[in-house]
Design brief:
Layout lengths: L7 H8 L4 E5 L6 H8 L4 E4 L3 H9 L1 H7 L4 E4 L7 H11 L7 E5 L2 H12 L3 E5 L5 H6 L6 H7 L3 H5 L5 H21 L4 H13 L3 E2 L2 H8 L3 H13 L3 E4 L15 E4 L2 H7 L5 H6 L3 H20 L4 E6 L4 E8 L2 E7 L11 H9 L5 E8 L5 E2 L5 E4 L3 H4 L10
Parallel strand pairs: 1-4, 1-5, 2-3, 3-4, 11-12, 12-14
Antiparallel strand pairs: 6-8, 7-8, 9-10, 10-11, 13-14
Helix pairs in contact: 3-4, 5-6, 8-14, 11-12, 12-13
Length: about 400
């Protein structure tokens, strides 16, 4: 089953105006399938094949003679020597847009090659997992608990017969072996797997790198390196706090989120809907889902939406969204019927910001329908969050 991706029009626009389009992101987010669907007339070669990667690295001229433009090079990071030759090919006819499309699942290698050879020539886009809207449009009607447990990897949504636990076990093993052992020469993969699980347990929490390192039994510097690796691989997102000039009491540490709720659930041992309902981690899982959904919506539209959170010594707001010089404040709540008291922190933080700049306040929860609390705070389902932010028109309900 093919699932339409909301980011597709943005990719086509970029390919029509820039010499090089680069699509990166975590493994299994659907990069190859999407690019081949959008650009069927391009020649295609994957450097996952050792023979192709070897020639691209050692004899780039012959490689490019065999694979003429327009060209898609998949997993291009496996041939770092190819980038300089790609620069020469592009500069020979720089006005010809969309002739070269590159994909890669290891951004830490890919971005180095782009920075050194293709700077100013390439549009770089990150592909994340499926959004709520994409899953719904595909007709994959899953209960919310199953949406959270299966996450946003397209293959898991397109084929409900796949066992999610087995899928994620294989995913983690492949990631550890291919991306880590080969790129950073991490010898003790068991330590890194423990680190990955410790990170998952801290999703939607403030990052304390020293505590994380201590719990896993590694040095603080190693924890920093490994965390940076997870970020560059697209598996972890760090959300920075919003700083206010009016107070010195603001928390300055970022919040940590695992990018996919299915992988998060697997790593913390949640397998079934009942496990999820009874888990003390359900609130963190829901907050992770909300934050990542808004990131996906903004990325699909190419909207300059900036996400922060607010935390000082007495209050916290999960999301402070900056867009066009205005703020939208939101808390993620695992409830179906929140009360005005649940929005107390939103009202307090809004009062500390410039009221003219606060465009809205909302509780994003499991309510089936949008309504307004007595204090003026919106209560809305996640599928209405994008329209609440002005990212897209409101979805009519029958």
């Amino acid at each position: 089953m093919w699932i339409e991706r909301e980011i597709a029009p943005r990719l086509q626009r970029l390919a029509a105006t820039r010499p090089v389009l680069v699509l990166t992101g975590a493994r299994q987010t659907g990069k190859t399938s999407l690019i081949r669907k959008l650009f069927p007339d391009h020649h295609y070669v994957s450097l996952d094949l050792p023979s192709e990667a070897n020639q691209a690295n050692q004899d780039p001229s012959s490689f490019l003679a065999r694979h003429p433009l327009p060209l898609v090079v998949d997993e291009v990071q496996y041939a770092p020597e190819l980038f300089r030759h790609l620069k020469s090919v592009i500069d020979a006819d720089r006005s010809n847009a969309g002739q070269l499309i590159l994909t890669g699942s290891q951004p830490f290698a890919l971005m180095q090659g782009i920075a050194e050879s293709l700077a100013g020539r390439a549009a770089v886009v990150q592909l994340e997992g499926l959004s709520v809207a994409e899953v719904k449009a595909a007709g994959a009607a899953l209960p919310l608990s199953q949406q959270l447990l299966r996450g946003g990897f397209p293959e898991l949504i397109a084929n409900p017969a796949i066992d999610a636990t087995e899928y994620f076990a294989s995913y983690v093993a492949t990631y550890l072996e291919r991306d880590l052992r080969s790129q950073l020469q991490i010898n003790n993969l068991r330590d890194f797997e423990r680190f990955l699980r410790a990170v998952a347990l801290r999703s939607a929490q403030l990052l304390n790198r020293a505590e994380l390192a201590r719990d896993v039994g590694i040095s603080n510097s190693t924890a920093g390196i490994w965390l940076g690796l997870l970020q560059r691989s697209g598996l972890v997102v760090l959300l920075e706090p919003l700083f206010s000039n009016a107070t010195k009491r603001m928390v300055k540490a970022p919040k940590l989120y695992l990018a996919d709720t299915g992988l998060l659930a697997f790593l913390v041992g949640l397998r079934h809907g009942q496990d999820l309902q009874e888990s003390p981690l359900v609130g963190a899982l829901w907050e992770t889902h909300v934050v990542m959904e808004l990131r996906r919506q903004a990325a699909a539209l190419g909207d300059p939406l900036v996400l922060h959170f607010w935390r000082d010594r007495s209050k916290e707001v999960d999301l402070v969204v900056q867009r066009g010089g205005r703020y939208w404040l939101a808390d993620a709540k695992w409830t179906q019927l929140p009360q005005a008291s649940d929005a107390k922190r939103l009202v307090q933080v809004a009062a500390e910001l410039n009221q003219d700049c606060v465009a809205g306040q909302a509780l994003i929860c499991r309510t089936p329908n949008r309504f307004v609390l007595a204090n003026g705070v919106d209560v809305l389902p996640l599928e209405d969050a994008a329209s609440w932010l002005g990212l897209r028109p409101a979805t009519p309900r029958g």
